[in-house]
Design goal:
Strand content: 15-25%
Largest sheet: 2 strands, antiparallel
Structural class: alpha+beta
Oligomer: single chain
Number of strands: 6
Shape: elongated
Radius of gyration: 27 Å
Number of domains: 2
Length: 193
């Protein structure tokens, strides 16, 4: 075997070794992704039973406004005449509740809509585009109402940061990782193990 043939063989050997290393790296990455998918991807979520409505969701999220939004569990709602998530505590609402203005509302951004249904009944809805996740309405509803308002991370907005700044700042440990295929912890509905 001549010197030129030996060089070609060494080059061929090095090329094959490089290709083998690249294939091994691709296979390792695929195996790692497969193992991750087998474990099940997880996302951040707030456990409504642990949340104390501290206000950190509005201020610690890396997004502006926060990916945390108020959710209204209509099944728990009593369609109150006086919603304690809507009206400020200690502020007397106007005698004619159909004319309740911003000065008597608890939400700083006006994210809670109010619509008269019939008799003394009103329907309250959340405009998520206006909600900043401060939790003031949730706190009012939990203290004086039936607890039908609660906070949840909206996954169409959340970046799912590995080190969530809200989770790190949460004083009650309400942030938890949940399966991505079942990402919401709903109030009034038990999670299946």
């Amino acid at each position: 075997m001549g010197e030129d043939e030996a060089r070609l063989s060494r080059r061929d050997l090095l090329r094959r070794l490089g290709m083998g290393t690249g294939l091994a790296a691709v296979a390792g990455t695929a195996a790692a992704l497969g193992a991750r998918a087998g474990r099940g991807d997880t996302v951040w979520q707030i456990d409504p039973a642990k949340c104390i409505q501290c206000g950190n969701c509005a201020t610690y999220c890396v997004l502006e406004p926060s990916a945390v939004k108020c959710v209204h569990a209509f099944i728990l709602c009593g369609y109150c005449e006086l919603c304690f998530g809507y009206f400020q505590p200690g502020v007397e609402p106007p005698r004619n509740l159909q004319e309740a203005g911003a000065e008597s509302q608890l939400c700083p951004t006006g994210a809670i809509g109010r619509r008269w249904i019939e008799g003394p009944l009103y329907e309250y809805t959340i405009d998520e585009a206006l909600c900043i996740g401060c939790g003031k309405c949730v706190k009012g509803c939990n203290l004086h109402g039936n607890g039908s308002l609660f906070l949840q991370v909206r996954h169409d907005r959340c970046l799912n940061c590995n080190a969530c700044s809200i989770a790190a700042a949460c004083p009650s440990g309400a942030y938890t990782r949940v399966p991505a295929d079942d990402p919401y912890l709903l109030k009034g509905k038990e999670r299946q193990p």
